[in-house]
Amino acid sequence: MNASLRRFLTNPKAVVGLVILMLVVLAAIFAPVIFPRNPWQMASRPFLPPFQDAKFWLGTDMLGRDILAGLAYGAQISLIVGVASTVVAVVVGVLFGAMAGYYGGFVDDALMRVTEFFQTIPTFVFALLLVAILSPSVMSIIIAIGVVSWPPVARLVRSEFASLRSRDFVKAAVVLGQSNRQIIFSQILPNTMSPVIAMASLMVASAILTEAAISFLGLGDPNMMSWGYMVGAARTVIRQAWWMSFFPGIVILLVVLALNLVGEALNDVLNPRLARKGRQ
Amino acid sequence: MSDPLLKIEKLTVALPSAGDRVNAVSDVSLTLDKGEILCIVGESGSGKSITASTVMGLLPSDQLKITGGSVTFDGIDLLALDENGMRKVRGARIGMIFQEPMTSLNPVMKIGRQIEEVMEAHGIAREKRQARAIELLQAVGLPEPEAIAERYPFRLSGGQRQRVMIAMALALEPDMLIADEPTTALDVTTQAQILKLIRDLQRERGMGVLFITHDFGVVADIADRVAVMQKGVVVEVGPASEVLVSPGHPYTKSLIDAVPGFREQASAGSTEAPVLKVSGLRKVYRTGGGLFAVPKEFVAVNDVSFSIARGETLGLVGESGSGKSTIGQCVMRINGIDGGKVEFNGSDIVNASGAALKAYRAQAQMVFQDPFASLNPRHKVGRSIMAGPLAHGVDTATARSRMEQLLKRVGLDASAADRYPHEFSGGQRQRIGIARALAVEPDLLVADEAVSALDVSVQAQVLDLLREIRDEFHLAMLFITHDLRVASQICDRVIVLHRGRIVEEGEVTNVFGDPQDSYTRNLLAAVPGQKWHRGEQQALPA
Amino acid sequence: MSSPLRAVLSRLVKSVAVVLAIVLLNFLLIRLAPGDPASVMAGQAGAADQQFMDQLREQFGLDKSIYEQAWIYLKGIAQGDLGFSYRQNTAVWQLIAERLPATLLLTVSAFIFALIAGVVMGAIAAMNAGRSLDFIISVVSLVFYATPLFWIGLMSILLFSVYLGWLPAFGMMTVGAGYTGWDHVLDVARHLVLPATTLGLFYMAVYARMTRASMLEVRDMDFVRTARAKGLKSGPIVRRHILRNAILPIITLAGIQAGQLVGGAILTETVFGWPGIGRLAFDALLQRDYQVLLGVFLITSVMVVIFNIITDLIYRVVDPRMGASA
């Protein structure tokens, strides 16, 4: 593991990704310290362009709210939603996939029909509906994104389980008299974790994108500043104030990019066989 | 005398750094004449396939670099050719066939088209191609060539696909054919047919053939001359008749000694009461059932009965699809069954569950085929071996001491316990697998192709180990193999299976020495290197 | 029954089952919403008076058991009744039918653009793996993969409409110009460029990454070595052997992603004021007009199911092994 960790930390993709993520995490944690003022409050004159007032580097919006402060506070909800919904999706997906792949037959058929169903329905529309019906809040957004993003995990885990299930070392464990629980958790699951971890970091990225899109459409948590909301609010005044939508978008792009880089680096390190293929 | 067709001189191919060896192939010099078959024989990692790929210009250039030497083919310096020059040689003047017929053909292109492609690439007129492809399919002995040409590869068996590969390689009547382990993935009867085909075509067309193999039996059947490679170096070259009968190099000698032959002496057998009794066993696989499809049924095992006593080894032999491995899995309760009985010490196993099944798990154990897949890559070796005893309630200290003893017994150091499987060779892993099976102190050991993936010298050692532990622990052993020579070495009695049914059974020297069933006779006749084996035995002092 | 026919039939039955399940899900979602289903259906903000609510209760049998309610709902859908928007005072089906062609035009153009551009980029990257061209393509596709779609839309409006003035930024045609014939087609096409590209760029990135990975995997396969041993030129090797096999997983992926494409259409249509069902959904979202939202959800789901059937059929044609295994 130590060697893997070293390889991960010396991977240029991982370094770039981790540095960006670190900055965002720090911004989210220290937002209330750096910007004590409520980000919804007016801070200066409306439509202040960026790089003109040293106190408001990135300018202000149509209500005079500080863009930079909004970005710092927005990091909170992006990270919370990204991580929490991924945890939900991974737990559900691993459970479904493990059961389907391990037990096969009828269990597999039933669970996979459910998974296919959730993969068929338009995920973003479904997520929007859920948030609208559950009424917009951080919680409902987390649930909605979790509910629509577990199928790929389930499919991945299922195929890993199904292939490992027929491996000789698992047959050996069966023959040795280990229980199903032992075989699932100690023999098979650890061998499926590397691709799941790599996939999870990509899922955090797409959850952040989805959260931004939901907030952009005006369905975000009304109590929390979010990047998507900022771009959405700027949409109608784009001709007057390009910076209002430009900076939040750039931040989303950077964070999602960073998570993808980390995910790819994890893939390089944890699944070296695939990665080698990729590099040749 | 004229120049040889192929002349390899002082060829050296470097391995990527950080290997335990600097060169994959070093200072290799070989020649091949027109109309001659040269076999390069060696174990895995000997560099034999790399040598062949170098001649064909198919080395993965980002990993392996040619650092010295020359390859001259019919006066052309192959290593000096650019990619386009080499391309004109490939397929037209040198044909090549590979080990894995199942994956060597493009799955989404029709057979006929794949053959025509060779001709297209070398400028044969469109009108001539189709007829020629049919002609070739006929020449390699495929039935209904017109129909085959219109099929996709997945409809063909492995042997048929290898014939297609040969047809493709011979499409432009090349002067030389390179065959890289072309029969290794095939059943023994198919292997015999393909070997005969290659030999016949070679004589008919006067080609030079560079034939790569690990099997001395195959060498004996096909080679005019032999080159023996070890760790990237050619240790011995000479006419097949000399090298096989009186090898000059000690390595060659040790390899030939390790080749299993047919045993002459009848086995004493066991007089004890049987521990495992299988009667009327039937197993059916169903595939492809659905809303509008009736599932296809495949009867894998049909009315199979046998019994094994402690201290005895029963062999199950047969080709792929004979049901031999399925029987092993049914006995081990990895698979359910569709009819018949499996009894262990008089109690039913098929419907055992809970404590009864668990008790059986401590009495019957298994050794698997693939040493790379049979150990959990994330568990240390010690943990893998202790898993069995711990699952059966043995305390950790006892399990640990048993594990350490067993590691020593199978010939490994006790320190192996703290290492991961990838740090061991195939043979060592197979020993670990045996230790793991023994750790629960079983009465019955099922060995499913347990030595098939090993090099011949390692194979002999693992067979010895299995024989020793059978006697030492007084085990009943069910030995499943496709290799009749191996079965003859280790089994007391043997059952010959064909398409899920028993065609013949009995004491091993009786069955193999005087087969009664025509299928058994075919199977035996197809074993490579028989004349050589017989000759060798005559040469030995009585 | 011949096996392809059987496969198509079983596929159709499966699809009907999926659509039924979606209808049931729809039904459950209404009940999931907090408050009185009647008021939810009428639009939460209270667009409907008591008379409407009573009418609704009767129409949906809200006083009856949940099973009967489900049955009534199902029957309604089967007769093409997607409900009534009290906000817009129009049948939901009519609202959707009016806007569906615009959405189809947008999504199909975006999809075709994404597929062609993505596969070409991925193939070029794979064939130059490890070189600078590969690096550039990989970076470009990674960036588009990470960029929020709505933001690309806004930025492209800023660049191509506001600053450069090359392309229109809003709507599907020039209002009041009254173009006919080819002028009309050209006008729509000009309006289509930005939204279709915006929607397509993300998927282009997805297909490019997938194509690259798939081709690199196929490149190492035995049959490609066979093709080289036959003396084929690199052109035919790439086209007939590598790309032909590498494309198979892309087709599957395209089928799976059809659903997301529709989701993206909501964002795109909102940004560009494209008069499709995405725009309709956005307006319904703002007004909490659940009947319309659920109708859009149902219709887009059915679109995805149809799209899946099409990709399935294409796969069957492209991969000869499929016909036999079923």
The CATH architecture of the largest domain in chain B can be named as 3-Layer(aba) Sandwich
Shape of chain C: globular
Number of strands of chain C: 2
CATH third-tier fold name of the largest domain in chain C? MetI-like fold
- Widest beta sheet: strand line-up of chain C: 1-2
Structural class of chain B: alpha/beta
The biggest beta sheet of chain C is recorded as:
2 strands, antiparallel
Family (chain A): Belongs to the binding-protein-dependent transport system permease family.
Organism (chain A): Pseudaminobacter salicylatoxidans
Protein name (chain A): Peptide/nickel transport system permease protein
Keywords (chain A): Cell membrane, Membrane, Peptide transport, Protein transport, Transmembrane, Transmembrane helix, Transport
Task: Offer a quick outline of the entry.
The complex is a heterotrimer of chains A (280), B (542) and C (326). With 280 residues, chain A is an all-alpha fold.
Task: Explain this structure.
The complex is a heterotrimer of chains A (280), B (542) and C (326). Chain A is mainly alpha-helical. Mean pLDDT of chain A is 88; it is low at 274-280. In chain A, helix 2 crosses helix 11, helix 5 runs antiparallel to helix 6 (138-149) and helix 7 packs antiparallel against helix 9 (180-216). Chain A has 12 helices and no strands. Chain A has one domain: MetI-like (MetI-like fold). Chain B has 542 residues and is α/β, with parallel strands linked by helices. Chain B is built from 20 helices and 20 strands. The relative contact order of chain B is 0.11. By secondary structure, chain C is mostly helical. Chain C folds into 2 domains: 14-81, no CATH class; 93-325, MetI-like fold. Chain C has helices spanning 3-32, 37-42, 50-59, 66-78, 92-127, 132-146, 149-163, 181-219, 222-229, 234-272, 277-287, 290-318, 320-325; strands at residues 84-85, 90-91. The longest helix of chain C has 39 residues, at 181-219. In chain C, 44% of the residues are buried.
